[in-house]
Amino acid sequence: MALLGRLLQVAGMLLCLEALYFGIFQGSMGKEMTFLVLGGVVFLLGRFIERRAG
Q: How far apart are the first and last CA of the chain?
């Protein structure tokens, strides 16, 4: 279960990185904020699962 938490944390970081890409190169503030919030939620979900497993 801890591995699932770690994988979700990595996925959340990648979504935040993609948000940065959309903000800088695409100029799309809507997509940037959507991916940023989604990445944060996925990361926090992974952190919650990892703590519950350990």
A: 9
Sequence ranges of the domains in the chain: 2-53
Tens digits of per-residue pLDDT, 1-54?
A: 999 999 999 999 999 999 999 999 988 899 999 999 999 999 999 999 999 987
Structural element, H or E, at residue 6: helix 2-21
Q: CB of 42 within 8 A of CB of 6?
A: no
Read off the pTM: 0.90
Distance CA(5)–CA(12), nearest Å, equals 11
Q: Is residue 8 a contact partner of residue 49, using CB atoms and an 8 Å limit?
A: yes
Tokens coding 51: 């703590």
**Do the Cβ atoms of 33 and 3 come closer than 8 Å?**
no
